[in-house]
Amino acid sequence: MKTLLWATALTTLPALASAADFQVAAPVTGATIYPQGATVTRRVVAEVPAGAHRILFPVRRGMLDYGPPRILPSGGVSLGATQLLTSYVTDPKAVYSPAQQATLDRVETLEDRVTGKSDEISRAQVALDGANARLEFLGSVKGGALDAIDPEALRNAATLIGSETAAAQLEKQQTEEALRGLSKEMDELRRELAQAQADLARLTPPEGPVDMMAVSLELDTPQEVVLEVVYLDGKANWRPDYDLRLTRGEEASVQIDRKAVVQQFTGELWDGIELELSTADPFAGIVPSDPQPNQAQIGNAAYKRASGSASYDTSRVAAKPAMEEEAVVVEAAPIVAGLKVEGLAVSYDYPRKVTLAPYGGEGLQLSLDTVTLEADEKIIAAPRTDDTAFLLAELRNTLSEPILPGQASVYRDGVFIGRNTVPLIPAGATEDLSFGPLESLRLEWTLLNNDTGDKGIVSRSNTREQAMEFSVENLSDEAVELTAIYALPYSEQEDLELDVRARPAPTREDYEKRRGVGEWDMELAPGETKVVRIDVTLDWPSGPELIWRP
Q: Kind of pairing, strands 236-247 and 406-412?
């Protein structure tokens, strides 16, 4: 056995001697982003000679959160073992991408220029200090010190002092001018340096000791090896956003500008990547639930055991996060994504490469496409709670794919109305979308007095009688058709007897399958007002308290 091991070791010595490690960058080149999470693709390229070698690339944060990545080699390359090397590279600059290295070189060049300019300023300051010192000395020569000098020597001294003073003044002036120029140049260099440093930070180069992934391979001939590294990352998302534009009239329609707001929070810049948006959910469960035995028992002990073990984990019920409004981006030329429908999932291939900020930012807003759907206008009035009626557009989704839930900017006849929420509208389904209030249709609700007809309640210990009315007034100069909705009281208790009389009676009851909600179809001429009166009588046994709000 020992002989075999030694023979194997000796056989592999030439291969081991020629083995080499090739450290390369692994930038993100593509991503399929889901409503939560993303499938990320990195590209590794290395020129590798023949023989057994290893390609090493950096492991960035999040790459291993959901298992090891898939590593797909270029054609004809066979991969061997893959190994994670923790804190393998102590100098992160060794694994900078070409863009990061180029920006770092620019930073270092500018730092050298700033240092050189600082030295120039220091030398100029020394010259200025020398000129000031000479002027101070020349100015200190007083007349008393020259009393013993003969006139000729005095004239020579005065000439010398004058010429030296003039030379020192000129040198001072020139040096101050040079310092002002150098100061401006320094300010400009510092601005360039700050911008270069910001550009480098934006590229999010790796910091500190870097974990590396080592991939072994063997080549018969030298070649360029390309590896695609694919993995799941939970720190990215996209959400739909819309512009809804209603055109009113007999042939009413809704133009839907579909957009996407895309973000990622990996802490790494995704620069110039190929982007696909998908509605799939890779984090959804793929295994059916396993039913547990459900034994029924009787008796106090059994009840205590059952009630003691039954619990409800409210922490697992999470509210969906509210969608933030995004600023509307006006694009010079529309670039739209290609739509793909794959079963229940919808995906969009964006035709241009995009760049996603490392920490989300304001989100990248992309235009997907524009569709127009026919619509039927209708007006809904809820006088118990609203002061005006509202315009709705009933539209049928005649597309081959669903309209995804999201936020929308709403426009009516070209005028911005506000923001609203769009629900999921499956293909073939119908949905009512609101397009804002109609100020010309005024609503009023009044609580009446049964004794005087103006106000109040007539009540006994077990009886309550209530009268109320609502009105709809058309202040426009056009005839209007609308539906008023009002929640009439109802009871599910035998002891609570309820009598409701509405004049006129509702056209339909149980609006949208909501029990007791009546509908009144109305036609109002210009300036016309219509009133509905509702009388309610409630009887119940003495003792219980009535819980009801008109």
A: parallel
